[in-house]
Amino acid sequence: MLKKSAAKRKRKNITHSAPSQQNQPKSGPPQFLIDAADAVNSKQYDRAIDFLKQGIGQDSFAAYKGIGDIYLFLNENEKAMDWLEKARKCDPESVDVLDSIGRALVALGRKDEAVEILGKAIKLQKDMKNVRSLAESMQRMGEPDKAVEVLEEMLEVNPQRLEVMFELGMLFERTNRLDKAEQYYKKIIKFGPHSTAYDHLGCICVKMRRMPEAVYYLRKAMELLPDNTDIWNSLAYALIQSGEAQEGVDLLQKVVDIMPEYPKGHSNLLFSLRYLPELDQQMVFEEHKRWGQRHAPINMARTSHDNTVEPERKLRIGYISPDFKRHVVAKRFEPLLDSHNRDVVEVYGYGNIECPDSTTNRLQEKFDCYRNIWDVNDDAVARIIEQDKIDILIDLAGHTRNNRLLVLARKPAPVQVTYLGYAGTTGMEAVDYLLTDCLKAPPESQKYYTEQFAYLPGGVVCYTPPENAPVVTPLPAAKNGYVTFGAFTTNLRYNRPLLEVWAEILKLTPNSRLLLGFRDGGDEKIQEHYLSQFAECEVSRERIEISGWKSHTEYLKQYSDVDIVFDTFPENGGTTTCEALWMGAPVISLAGQHQNGRVGLSILSQIEMSSFAVETPSEYIAKAVSVANRPDSLMKMRASMRSRMAESSLCDTKRFARDVETAYREMWRRWCRGQGMSIPIE
Fold this sequence. Notes:
Number of helices: 30
CATH superfamily of the domain at 476-651: Glycogen Phosphorylase B
Radius of gyration: 28 Å
């Protein structure tokens, strides 16, 4: 990922290239470099190259290197190589040049040459200045072990070089060899407190789902670097994952207050607001609008497009997402991708995927055209989408991690839509529509969205049952003699008012049990966090069982022990609700005011069980107790649930795809009308 804007990064590359000794100015860079940097910042790349060519006589090395780096940035790699080789002749041992040449060779597919160049560059290092970027380049080529060999040789010469240990830890972390990375970071802190090592240990513990340890290390890092907002972000995530949503959100708010121009930090805050037990819709909407006005103002958007204005032609649809990998979004999106009518739409995919997996590879083959846009800057991605002539661009991420909303801010497609991955508004004027349904987002809630609602008549949730689903078992209560409630969704949706409602249900249902399962549920400290809250509500610990991560098949088997499933609020489950129903367990849901609190209502209504979606906590309690006291009714529901779902719109993927395509067609017709075409309104 580019950590700076393209312009800033390019200016840095130009103005800091080392000039040759005979031409080195006495103070400051020569004027041609300043002019070239200004041109780059204005995205006038041809003009910048002209300035650099004019400066060849003054500082050949800097001019050659600058031109090469501009062509490298523009992905014109053959031209980049020509100019970088000229710079290399001026200074054969320049690590900056060798790094750029290595990246150009990688882009050109000349891997062996690149490995040789980058390996030489690392060996030239007298300090650690450029080792990381060189090692990252070797990693991208699939040769991280070559960099490891060089670094380990350096460590053998001096076993106490902490900076070498750190680079090895970073390299192992980037290649997901977390155990090895952890070993090197722990070696570093044996020499004394080390803020960056603590930070990385915390992040490793997050990845390994050891949340209490993550919180410990990140707090240690924050003690040493109290003003480091990156550490605040990481600690906030770990706290929220541990069930401390309010403390995590408070930290994220501090990040936004200190760094108001940091879109990622602001998106993190927006995403996390959903986990607070009491949501003020107006406040949440205003915060989303603030994000849009601050980071994606409408003046960034392209105002005209040259797409062919034909309302009934085949449309070119683009889906952009960071989740074309093993992820719930991919699981829910793939049936739509499979069911699209390719006579009506041509489907492009833009995946912001750092580490592609088997799901990525499978999805890639299903698109008519697929592009991985990881580490490609927003302007370049927008240009690619414009060149692809996308008619309708659909964002599948919203403010979730690794989103590319800033690409949509540039309006590379004439019609832009958000759908699936995020329940709220983007807050952006450049996004035209939100794909939803009238139960999930009733008309009166339109005032909380910058996008116009595009309703799907059969519901916006579509579920494809897993092929490996276990058979539905007989009602557990019939065998046990007591009712077992269950909830197998993320604990991020847990909050104190929710737990108090569940506790009250348990108290009103004699001898009942509650099974909870979520990814980090096997951690004893996290278990204690929740068990102590139930104890405070006068529910004994013996009635609660908490389990951790399971394979998908084992997760589904848990429902054989559950009679009734609890949905969460104010944020509902989605896929987990569908899976519970498929396994025969009715779901009690509470329909809130916000879209992410009305998913249960939308799902249950599609299978004609809307009475299980209530409006208040007291109704939730009453419904759960009532259903628990009717075992005969529970048996009948359990036996018929799969056929009920299979025959409903919820599991009709082809119907869903046609509804989506009809919505796209109407969006396109509206755009064509806006271009002056007279089209009857159906």
